[in-house]
Design brief:
heterodimer, A: about 325 residues, Rossmann fold, 7-stranded mixed β-sheet, 11 strands, B: about 250 residues, mainly alpha, globular, transit peptide (chain B), lipid-binding (chain B), mitochondrion (chain B), Ubiquinone biosynthesis protein (chain B), lipid binding (chain B)
Chain lengths: ~325, ~250
């Protein structure tokens, strides 16, 4: 912690007034200032780093959102990569601070509910499962998959491919796995790839596709879902753990918005000396589709939604599972045979 | 005013949170002309049907469901299709047996329901025989009862029980629309639940028949007593009102 202090003080002194761009929350009518630097400034900085990028999105280029900013689609992946490059080193510390440690419970529950691994008693030919963990750079979901399949299901064959767009995050994962018992067993591999296009992964080859707190950063979510559908075996499971833009209870939602827009960028500023990246994180949560919308997107990709068609339920109710009063939600989809 | 306009006006009069309920496309009534849609989509149905034969060996557990999924040509992980795997097996058994009742028991339609008690007895015994349809599931049935009594499963279990008693009364030709609608369903559900517990405690078929007969007899007696009390209370209340009016009270 002591090592953060010099950086933090430096950052605090440097922090200028908030930028002119602001945004009004539809629900609580409160204005949130976006402190992500305006585009020109960002581009100057990128130029400084010798990363040539097109200066302006050209007229026919499609745009998407990056937090509350609008950027051209071709730029978003690179900027998301920049954000995660800068947060990689203290990603886990920051997650603990931002979610008050609850993200560990969510991830534990996520993996436990998926129940990866095949117990040897229920199968004649033990072959294990192939799990693809997308946006799993630091490996915390992958480690839980392997722990669960080994200790709960006594399955020593199940393997995980950790895929991330960002080499710095993957490096964190490699560091973590270097000291784990799975290092010599060939049960974990790393893949630097964009989840919208996974040419190195065969169609119908994956049992379980997980993405935890990653899919909201994708430029084309529907394309990533279609790619997930392609790589999964028939009967394979797509599972996603993600923040939700709004809590169902308006009072709690107001408190939660205060926390995410007030505290999280500040924590990022003090602990990681990087306010902009954390501002992006909370803004990207705000821009993510609601649970019902996202469940609809999963269904549109061709997946079956668990619990959705059960008797007595209509609409897309029950196609997901809310965690901690709906701060995060687990979505699942099953590829039909 | 035309009918659609009236319907629209009624809809708009309802408070906004209730409107989706009024618009729901699923019929909430029995219809002879329109068969009920399948309660389970094909994938779920295939896995659950394949899982039931594993229940005698592995019980109402996620293991049975896993084995069912692999038997049906899916993967172990496909069991994620079921938010609560063990209870899904129980509800599948309950739902399929309830829906099978209509094809197993048919009473002559023309004849007025002369003796509804006999019809109900036949229906209850037929439904109980459904628990014997898969060999050796009955010894595992206490597991299912235990699962149904878990706090998170109680609402679904009670709903299923209510559906069952509703189905039985419908098949028995009961058409009452007064307040006995509720008491009939509640008492029949109680009789059925008791009979099922009695059956799963290892009793023979004849004993179960005797048990059901005695419970239905009690139900008739209690029902008569309750309706008698109701009539008496109603009559007395009317008398008190008339007395009050005769004294000049404005009631």
């Amino acid at each position: 912690m002591a090592s953060f202090v010099p950086r933090a003080s430096k950052r605090l002194r440097l922090a200028g007034p908030s930028s002119p761009s602001s945004w009004v929350c539809n629900d609580c009518r409160r204005t949130f200032a976006s402190s992500i630097r305006p585009r020109q400034q960002q581009q100057q900085q990128q130029h400084h780093h010798q990363q040539p990028t097109p200066p302006h999105p050209s007229q026919d280029d499609k745009t998407t959102h990056f937090g509350f900013e609008t950027v051209s689609e071709s730029l978003k992946a690179g900027r998301v990569r920049d954000v995660f490059s800068s947060v990689a080193a203290n990603y886990d510390t920051m997650n603990d601070l931002m979610s008050l440690g609850i993200h560990r419970l969510w991830k534990d529950y996520f993996v436990r509910s998926l129940n990866p691994g095949i117990p040897p008693s229920t199968t004649s030919s033990p072959r294990g499962q192939k799990i693809l963990d997308i946006a799993g750079g630091t490996g915390d979901i992958a480690l839980r998959h392997l722990d669960h399949s080994t200790t709960i299901n006594n399955d020593h064959k199940t393997s995980v491919i950790i895929s991330d767009i960002n080499p710095e995050m993957l490096a964190e994962g490699m560091k973590r796995f270097a000291s784990s018992p799975y290092k010599p067993t060939n049960r974990v591999s790393f893949l630097e790839a964009n989840a919208e296009d996974l040419p190195t992964i065969e169609s119908n080859s994956i049992d379980l596709y997980t993405v935890a707190f990653g899919i909201r950063n994708f430029t084309h979510k529907q394309k990533a879902l279609a790619e997930a559908f392609r790589v999964l075996k028939p009967g394979g499971v797509f599972a996603c753990l993600e923040f939700t833009p709004n809590l169902s209870n308006p009072l709690l939602n107001a408190i939660y918005k205060r926390w995410s827009f007030g505290a999280i960028p500040l924590i990022g500023q003090v602990v990681a000396a990087d306010r902009d990246s954390y501002q992006y994180l909370v803004e990207s949560i705000e821009k993510f589709p609601s649970q019902a919308e996202f469940a609809g997107m999963i269904r549109d990709a061709g997946f079956l939604i668990p619990g959705h068609n059960s008797p007595g339920e209509g609409g897309l109710e029950g196609g997901w599972e809310d965690l901690t009063m709906g701060v995060a939600a687990i979505h699942k989809g099953i590829k039909p045979a | 005013m035309s009918v659609p306009a009236l319907a629209l006006r009624n809809l708009l009069r309802a408070p906004p949170p209730l409107r989706p309920l009024l618009l729901t496309p699923h019929a909430s009534y029995h219809s002879h002309e329109h068969p009920d849609p399948d309660p389970y989509p094909p994938t779920e149905s295939a896995i659950l049907a394949a899982a039931l034969p594993h229940v005698p060996n592995h019980g109402f557990t996620p293991t049975s469901l896993r084995l069912g999924a692999t038997d049906a040509g899916y993967l172990d992980i496909t069991t994620n299709l079921f938010p609560s795997p063990a209870f899904a097996l129980v509800t599948y058994h309950l739902t399929t047996q309830r829906l099978a009742l209509a094809s197993r028991v048919q009473f002559p339609a023309e004849e007025p329901a002369a003796n509804p008690r006999d019809r109900l007895r036949t229906l209850i015994l037929t439904r109980l025989r459904g628990n014997l349809e898969h060999p050796n599931i009955l010894p595992r049935w206490p597991e299912a009862l235990a699962l149904m009594s878990l706090a998170e499963n109680i609402p679904a279990s009670l709903r299923e029980l209510a559906f069952l008693s509703d189905e039985m009364l419908f098949l028995a030709g009961d058409t009452s629309v007064d307040s006995s609608w509720y008491s009939k369903r509640a008492s029949l559900a109680a009789v059925y639940a008791a009979a099922e517990v009695f059956q799963s405690s290892g009793s023979g078929e004849r004993e179960v028949e005797g048990f059901v007969e005695r419970r239905l007899e009690e139900r008739g007696r209690v029902g008569g007593f309750v309706s008698g009390v109701g009539e008496w209370v109603g009559g007395e209340a009317r008398g008190v009102l008339d007395l009050a009016r005769s004294l000049g009270w404005r009631v």
